[in-house]
# Entry
Amino acid sequence: MTHFMALWRKSGVNRPTSRAEHSKFLHAVYRASLRREPDPDGLRCYLEQLESNTLDWEGVLHAVLGSEEFLSQQGARSCEDRALRSLHGARVILFRELLPKA
# Structure
């Protein structure tokens, strides 16, 4: 995400400042990273910080991607990935060593 933000800065495009634009951004971040809609308290908290300039969009991304919820989802995904790779490896062995040649 930091690479994305660096490209954004280079592009010269101004960051949105309206509440509606911040809200759209927050909904997109939650859906893309946490796979859910933002909870009302989280949405309100981030909107307040964005409007008061105590946090920018990059800070929101760092907060969400560093959250326990996101990290636990990533751990679950990596477990699923390892399980699928193990299953694939077992299938390869089955076809190479146990099934008769075609």
User: Anything to note?
Assistant: The chain has two domains: 1-66, 68-102.
